[in-house]
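Retro notes, structure queue

What went well: the backlog is down to a handful. What didn't: a couple of records were mislabeled last round, so from now on we paste the full input next to the output in the thread. Example, using Receptor-like serine/threonine-protein kinase from Flemingia macrophylla:
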Amino acid sequence: MATKFFVLFLPFLFCSFVHSSIELGSSIVAGTNSSWRSSSGDYAFGFYHLRSGRYLVGIWFDKIPNKTLVWSANRDKPVEIGSTVNLTQSGQFVVQPVNDVLFSIHDGTNTTSAVMLDDGNFVLRDSLSNYLWKSFDSPTDTLLLGQTMQVGQKLFSNTEGSVDYSTGQYSLEIQQSDGNILLKAYRYTDSAYWWSDTAGNEGVRIIFNNTTAALYAVNRTNQIIHNLATADIGAIEDNYHRVLVNDQGNFQKLIYPKKNGSEWIAMWNAVTKPCTVTALCGVYGFCDTTGSDTKNYTCECLPGYTPFDPTAPSKGCYLSQAKNLCAANSSAPDNTVEVKEVQDADIPSKGFFFFDLQGIDNTDLENCKRELRDDCLSMAAVFNGSTCIKKRFPIINAIRLTPDTSNHVMLIKVPLVDNEKDSSLVVLTVALILCSLLAVLFAATAIYHHPFCLYLIHKRTPPKPKPKPMDINLKAFSFQQLREATNGFKDKLGRGAYGTVYGGILNLEGQQVEVAVKQLEQVEDQGEKEFVTEVQVIALTHHKNLVGLLGFCNEQNHRLLVYEKMENGTLSNFLFGEGGKPSWESRVRIVLEIARGLLYLHEECDQQIIHCDIKPQNVLLDSSYTAKISDFGLAKLLMKDKTRTNADARGTMGYMAPEWLKNAPVTSKVDIYSFGVMLLEIIFCRRHIELHQIEEGTNGDDMILIDWVLCLAKENTLRNTVIHDPEVESDFKRFERMTMVGLWCINPNPTLRPSMKMVVHMLEGNIEVGVPPIN
Ligand SMILES: *[C@@H]1O[C@H](CO)[C@@H](O)[C@H](O)[C@H]1NC(C)=O
Ligand SMILES: *[C@@H]1O[C@H](CO)[C@@H](O)[C@H](O)[C@H]1NC(C)=O
Ligand SMILES: *[C@@H]1O[C@H](CO)[C@@H](O)[C@H](O)[C@H]1NC(C)=O
Ligand SMILES: *[C@@H]1O[C@H](CO)[C@@H](O)[C@H](O)[C@H]1NC(C)=O
Ligand SMILES: *[C@@H]1O[C@H](CO)[C@@H](O)[C@H](O)[C@H]1NC(C)=O
Ligand SMILES: *[C@@H]1O[C@H](CO)[C@@H](O)[C@H](O)[C@H]1NC(C)=O
Ligand SMILES: *[C@@H]1O[C@H](CO)[C@@H](O)[C@H](O)[C@H]1NC(C)=O
Ligand SMILES: *[C@@H]1O[C@H](CO)[C@@H](O)[C@H](O)[C@H]1NC(C)=O
Ligand SMILES: *[C@@H]1O[C@H](CO)[C@@H](O)[C@H](O)[C@H]1NC(C)=O
Ligand SMILES: *[C@@H]1O[C@H](CO)[C@@H](O)[C@H](O)[C@H]1NC(C)=O
Ligand SMILES: *[C@@H]1O[C@H](CO)[C@@H](O)[C@H](O)[C@H]1NC(C)=O
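Corresponding output:
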């Protein structure tokens, strides 16, 4: 009797679980072990614990010991322990991170419940059980059985397997224009390294069929137009299934046996030769296959290049002896460069329409080498037995070819090590600058303990022999002198990150000179000697697009710098002030002037100076409106700060290169990024961030200048923005070129940003500007 009773009631009990839904007002807190599970227990929704200690709001296979993550709401912004995800009483589905602003997953008002379904789909429902929101509609890198993908949706790989789930460098998409399915390294101008050949179809969707586990593409009338992975043999319930764009750029179908599984097994791979994946070995990497085994690959660096991370050669390489080979008066190239040969290797150009420079037909290897050596803009070439094709840098897809099928020779140009002089791109001299800046800007975050920063502290260079003070035409003033000159510090000209600036008049060599006196507030408590040393470095710079330093004061705890006075104030005021929009001609001129000043700081003065804080507030205009960069060399004097508020830091935030935030080497390319943002501000005459919406019906996507410009470039609607400005419209070619230069400069990947030398060449129109990677 008892048994019968149990059997009768079992379905009822089971049912109550199937329909167990998540009520309004429910929440999960990161760090507790609670999650919302599907009825079978196969999937769970909640906070996924990362190795970094932080959490992603996501969905995972809950019965697999390693809890494979299949979806997440915040892959690029993990949250801290204690953060919550709430289905609020008013129906919103929101995440409240600890110490950060709330963000919503779904903003609806009609939600009455949510449920983690048994196929891995998390849904929000209204009172009639219609789905208002589905996790299946916003996939990350994975598709599950029963999931479809359509035009407009994309899958983005992870950065690194189960270590780093943030958005990686590969994407899968169905091309809107023709229905072709493409795999590409989307941050580069990569048209695709794998495609389905389904061009010419409409309404294409990818289906991961839940009755057969087959993966295929259909057209608008649901007819199969391309088979990707075949149906599974045997019962599909025996395995877990997923389809993934992995961190090596492959698109694959994987299964995990439910009973005795120990790992995911790949059943199908879109790419069969890994080295054909763009940028698989990073920038300046070399993808090598061992003999005839094209499935197995290793990443190396091009000859002469050094890996960024010796433990992970796939992260790309750099030239440690980087030199500006195009510099005027650089000595004969024969003595400064060497051309290295790599047999059976190629840098394929298919899909990289802008990476090839011109080809030279009917030539020989020696001539190809000579051509490469003499072309300061090219760093590599490929000789195929008859044609020599010079390659534009960066090189992102150098590969080994199977020996017997080619007679290709890859040529790589490497600057020779110069023992007499210091290499021109010494990064370490700025180590301290970067370090103190990082500390200030991110004092509130864990970046304080940034490994790069620690590394730099230990690596601090021994002091270089300094130029003798008498070489420098620099005056030391007493505090009393400056107090008198500024009339007791009464005439306040402005306030910057480093201190307050006062106007005054000084008697210099019998002449009354108008000066600007900057009272440094946060100078590190370093010895008098160091202060004078830094000031001398600044004083050694002489360029018409830099604000000149006339003298300094270093008395007790007073640290002041005396500059020539710039009558027309800051560029920021000139662009966005009350005077209205400056003329197009003057804006173009100012861009070039700033570029030349920065070029001097980076490449032409004795000791490279990285500015670290390029923005319109730090560019001043003299009496004839010539632009001059100010505040350079000061970052080094900055101290870990107590008074500077978050608001100040955010003011500079928009100009900061993304690598500040990442554990990546920081070089002069941070200035290039800031310059790029500023260039766009100048030519569009718009601040990098607008606090209100610009265009109607755009969801405010246009509030961030660089996103807006990227969007315009992508949609090819740049011209629309200048229709009301005849001055610019009549010079549209130049406007477009400058925009492209700006977009190159703000590339998230520092190695892809041009040098200042290249920027000046491109702005002057001396070299062609390629199409920047836009995505
Ligand atoms: C969560 O689960 C792990 C392992 O099962 C356990 O060590 C930990 O104490 C649990 N944490 C909480 C807050 O229950
Ligand atoms: C989310 O839920 C937690 C715990 O129930 C609560 O403390 C918090 O205030 C809620 N946050 C929001 C934004 O509703
Ligand atoms: C919410 O429900 C109301 C009434 O049923 C309906 O008119 C409205 O369109 C719904 N809103 C959304 C966003 O679904
Ligand atoms: C398969 O997916 C369809 C909708 O795409 C759904 O109606 C059906 O219930 C699913 N079947 C299984 C076995 O999950
Ligand atoms: C999945 O495949 C089965 C058998 O081929 C077919 O009947 C069904 O319509 C397919 N499901 C979808 C959602 O296309
Ligand atoms: C879909 O594909 C089938 C087979 O290729 C073709 O006959 C049909 O016309 C296509 N439908 C559309 C709307 O293109
Ligand atoms: C799992 O068990 C099945 C039989 O139960 C066996 O055929 C299969 O090889 C096993 N797989 C693994 C990975 O051990
Ligand atoms: C599961 O995780 C452990 C520890 O992180 C790791 O050693 C193991 O390789 C993982 N297994 C799979 C199949 O990923
Ligand atoms: C690839 O090479 C590694 C070592 O070079 C070797 O251990 C592995 O078995 C190879 N894999 C294949 C599929 O040949
Ligand atoms: C380069 O050489 C020219 C002529 O030889 C000279 O006038 C010029 O000053 C030199 N420039 C530099 C930067 O040395
Ligand atoms: C070398 O490349 C050129 C241009 O792509 C091509 O016309 C020529 O046939 C190639 N020669 C050999 C030997 O492959």
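Agreed that this is the format going forward. Reviewer comment attached to the example: Residues 1-19, 351-355, 419-472, 638-651 have pLDDT under 50 and may be disordered.
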